[in-house]
Design brief:
Length: 233
């Protein structure tokens, strides 16, 4: 009993140590947008281990969540904030909309790590589900660990049929990752801070015309455009 109590005390201390750092980043959406661009550039720098270009070319949307904190002892937990962007009718990327990712896991694990998470949305339906409210991966939309490299011929049927492909990078290693059960939701407070407006709806950010955005938004759109060619129409 004492040993179990000590384990939970250690876990609580761990989250207290990680909390201030993650909260500081969560309260700075401008920095998150810049980090998202950096993460994308670094991951795509090595084609042999990057997201396949044909998946990005046909993607309807993408979420980039830098520095997701995962920690736990037997029972795990993860939390991070980032951005989601979608393609418009012309095939161009939208302004970034702020999101948060929260999830848990069960299994023999101990310790903590920071990972970069990328979600590739293959359909409009999954993005629309996110806009409507709290969105649980694997329940509201099928999610699978995405393939890496130049081609996707080796992908399984489950991967090819999934609406969302998930990726994670930790300590330089990048690969598909299972995120089933994690909740992704719009961060209205961060959107208001980033766009300097009292209230900004996700629809206004992703689909609305004329929304003034900081230069970091343009830079992120430019980075995504480099690695994804709009699908032929």
């Amino acid at each position: 009993m004492q040993q179990k109590f000590a384990c939970w005390v250690s876990l609580a201390v761990l989250f207290l140590c990680l909390g201030p750092a993650s909260s500081a980043l969560a309260d700075n959406p401008e920095e998150k947008v810049k980090q998202a661009g950096t993460v994308m550039e670094q991951i795509m720098a090595i084609p042999e281990s990057a997201i396949p270009s044909n998946l990005l070319n046909n993607a309807h949307g993408i979420a980039i969540i830098p520095g997701v904190i995962k920690a736990g002892f037997v029972l795990g937990d993860r939390y991070g904030t980032g951005v989601v962007l979608v393609r418009n009718a012309a095939g161009n990327w939208s302004n970034p909309c702020m999101v948060s990712l929260v999830g848990g896991s069960v299994g023999w694990q101990i310790g903590a790590q920071s990972t970069d998470v990328i979600l590739v949305f293959k359909s409009a339906r999954s993005v629309e589900g996110l806009i409507k409210g709290k969105f649980t991966l694997g329940i509201d939309a099928a999610v699978a660990a995405g393939p890496v490299g130049r081609r996707v011929e080796g992908a399984t049927d489950i991967t090819l049929k999934a609406e969302i492909l998930s990726y994670s990078r930790s300590r330089g290693f990048f690969a598909g990752v299972s995120l089933e059960g994690s909740a992704l939701q719009i961060d209205d407070k961060a959107n208001a801070g980033y766009y300097q407006q009292p209230y900004v709806r996700a629809n206004d950010v992703l689909y609305g015309p004329g929304l003034a955005a900081p230069p970091s938004a343009s830079r992120l759109r430019e980075i995504l455009a480099i690695y994804s060619v709009p699908p032929a129409r």
